[in-house]
Amino acid sequence: MASELFLSILSSIAQDESHSIAGNLRWSIRKRFADGSFKVSSAPYNYSIQDGNLVIKPSEAKIIKQIFTSFLQGQLTGHIVKQLNTQQIQT
Predict the structure, then answer these.
(1) Residue partners of 54: CB distance under 8 A and separation at least 6
(2) Vertex 41, ends 56 and 65: CA angle to 5°?
(3) DSSP code per residue over 18-72
(4) What is the pTM of this model?
(5) Which pick of 40, 55, 59, 64 has the fewest CB atoms within 10 Å?
(6) Nearest CA to 36 among 48, 52, 24, 58?
(7) Rounded to whole angstroms, what are the CA distances from 43 to 4, 57, 89?
(8) What is the chain's alpha carbon radius of gyration, rounded to the nearest angstrom?
(9) Which among 43, 40, 69, 68 is positioned nearest to 56, based on CA atoms?
């Protein structure tokens, strides 16, 4: 019984520590975004990384505009995907 109590106490401490670390990471990311010093490790679609900054690729910007326009016109994501696949646009 004592070992179960001890295990319960240790798991409670570990859970608290996990929540604390997660909170610290969220704070750190928010602060770096606010400072403008957040660096991404891989660029999302339509961007490239140059000198540590995200730069828009003009050739792919048209595709992003097409996706948003289709979505704002009420098209479902599955239909948009079919359109992109028909146009042989790479993921």
Answers:
(1) 40, 43, 44, 47, 48
(2) 25
(3) HHHHHHHHHHHHHHHHHHT----SSPPTTEEEETTEEEE-HHHHHHHHHHHHHHH
(4) 0.49
(5) 59
(6) 52
(7) 47, 11, 18
(8) 23
(9) 43
**CB-CB neighbours of 67 under 10 Å:** 19
Angle between helices 77-86 and 58-72 (to 10 degrees): 140
In tens, the pLDDT along 14-35 reads: 999 999 999 999 999 899 888 8
The pLDDT, as a whole number, for residue 3 is: 86
81: Cβ–Cβ under 8 A, 6 or more apart, which residues? none
DSSP 8-state assignment for residue 1 = -
> In the structure encoding, which two tokens stand for residue 7, read together?
């295990």
* Parts of the chain with a pLDDT under 50: none
